[in-house]
């Protein structure tokens, strides 16, 4: 952390204090902070806060209206509750990693190694907002318990009900989609790729017309979903042969004109140059005394009346010790200096 780019981005707008919860004075300061707080977010391994005398029951006794988000590898219960967890392990345990890769290849990392971390935060905030509404009505706080694998597991659309209904185990399909085709990634003449999504017969008919091969959408060829699924390799090969003859920009222009859902497959350099990202202000640049400039994703979602804004980058460790311990808790300068000397803060 400190001044790393990930810290500067992910800790933006936050205040940063240091506090050793293992020391008696640190524990006491934590309890004082809890008394003044609405929400506590924890991502220690299950049982760690309890070991320090700062578990949910102890904190709730201090502040009955407290809301506590607990994010761990596997949640607070179950046989794996005390095992450590990382997003990569969550991807594997959730079933996502099994689906990533080519059919005849090994399971691959599904894009970002931190997907589960971000989604756990997203679901955590959703839980916090619901808990706040409940507290408005009852005055009582509660815990939100999330295992890292659970948000990923929830994202795997109909995989669970399908297996429960007929025992079908979805396997790796590369870029393809299990129940529709063509719904994949296709190469272009200039060495790039595009994504095409045809989710029904009407969309495929539009694609066939754009390809100037309307006969592909006839009933005796690939006009029906069932026929396309039965002949998936052939359908993909026909589309690939067509996309391979044109560059990416021309293909996307033709597909857009024909109302065929499609888009470019971007890397981050492409994103920096794209006018849609610019128009939506999805990228924002900030700097401070430590770094002249850093570009990062902007705040989202976009609220009409109270839009989010980035006030500062992730602060230095302990940058707000005086403000929080002095201003919020009322400790004097001498006491703060003593706590620093002891290594409590």
In percent, how helical is the residue content?
40-55%
Distance between the termini: 17 Å
Mean pLDDT across residues = 96
Strand content: 5-15%
Helical/strand content category: mainly alpha
Low-confidence stretches: none
Number of H- or I-type helical stretches: 17
Order of helices and strands: HHEHHEHHHEHHEEHHHHEHHEEHH
Largest sheet: 3 strands, parallel
User: Using DSSP, what is the number of strands?
Assistant: 8
Produce the secondary structure layout:
Elements: H1 5-10, H2 24-35, E1 39-42, H3 48-51, H4 56-62, E2 67-72, H5 87-94, H6 96-99, H7 115-138, E3 143-147, H8 149-154, H9 159-166, E4 183-187, E5 193-197, H10 201-210, H11 225-230, H12 232-243, H13 248-257, E6 262-264, H14 268-273, H15 275-279, E7 283-286, E8 294-297, H16 321-328, H17 333-342
Parallel strand pairs: 1-2, 2-3
Antiparallel strand pairs: 4-5, 5-6, 7-8
Structure explained in plain terms:
This protein is mostly helical and 345 residues long. The chain contains 17 helices and eight strands. It has helices at 5-10, 24-35, 48-51, 56-62, 87-94, 96-99, 115-138, 149-154, 159-166, 201-210, 225-230, 232-243, 248-257, 268-273, 275-279, 321-328, 333-342; strands at 39-42, 67-72, 143-147, 183-187, 193-197, 262-264, 283-286, 294-297. The chain has a three-stranded parallel beta sheet. The longest helix has 24 residues, at 115-138. It starts with a helix and ends with a helix. The mean pLDDT is 96.
Q: Which descriptors apply to this entry?
A:
single chain; 345 residues; mainly alpha; 3-stranded antiparallel beta sheet
């Amino acid at each position: 952390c400190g001044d790393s780019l990930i810290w500067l981005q992910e800790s933006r707008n936050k205040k940063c204090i240091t506090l050793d919860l293992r020391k008696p004075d640190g524990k006491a300061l934590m309890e004082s902070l809890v008394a003044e707080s609405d929400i506590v977010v924890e991502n220690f391994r299950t049982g760690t806060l309890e070991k320090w005398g700062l578990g949910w029951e102890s904190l709730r006794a201090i502040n009955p209206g407290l809301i506590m988000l607990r994010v761990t590898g596997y949640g607070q219960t179950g046989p794996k509750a005390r095992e450590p967890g990382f997003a990569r392990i969550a991807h594997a345990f959730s079933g996502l990693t099994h689906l990533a890769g080519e059919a005849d290849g090994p399971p691959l990392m599904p894009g970002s190694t931190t997907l589960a971390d971000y989604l756990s935060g997203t679901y955590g905030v959703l839980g916090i907002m619901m808990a706040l509404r409940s507290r408005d009505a009852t005055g009582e706080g509660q815990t939100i318990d999330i295992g890292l694998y659970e948000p990923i597991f929830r994202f795997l659309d109909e995989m669970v009900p399908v297996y429960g209904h007929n025992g079908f185990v979805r396997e790796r399909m590369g870029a393809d989609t299990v129940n529709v085709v063509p719904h994949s990634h296709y190469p272009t003449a200039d060495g790039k790729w595009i994504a095409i999504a045809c989710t029904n017969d009407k969309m495929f008919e539009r694609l066939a017309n754009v390809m100037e091969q309307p006969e592909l959408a006839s009933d005796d060829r690939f006009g029906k979903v069932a026929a396309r699924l039965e002949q998936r390799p052939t359908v993909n090969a026909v589309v690939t042969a067509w996309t391979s003859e044109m560059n990416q920009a021309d293909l996307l222009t033709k597909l857009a004109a024909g109302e065929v859902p499609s888009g470019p497959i971007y890397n981050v350099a492409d994103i920096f140059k794209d006018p849609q990202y610019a128009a939506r202000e999805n990228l924002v640049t900030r700097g401070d005394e430590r770094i002249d400039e850093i570009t990062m994703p902007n705040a989202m979602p976009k609220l009409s009346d109270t839009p989010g804004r980035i006030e500062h980058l992730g602060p230095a460790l302990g940058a707000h010790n005086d403000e929080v311990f002095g201003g919020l808790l009322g400790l004097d300068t001498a006491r703060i200096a003593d706590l620093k000397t002891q290594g409590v803060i």
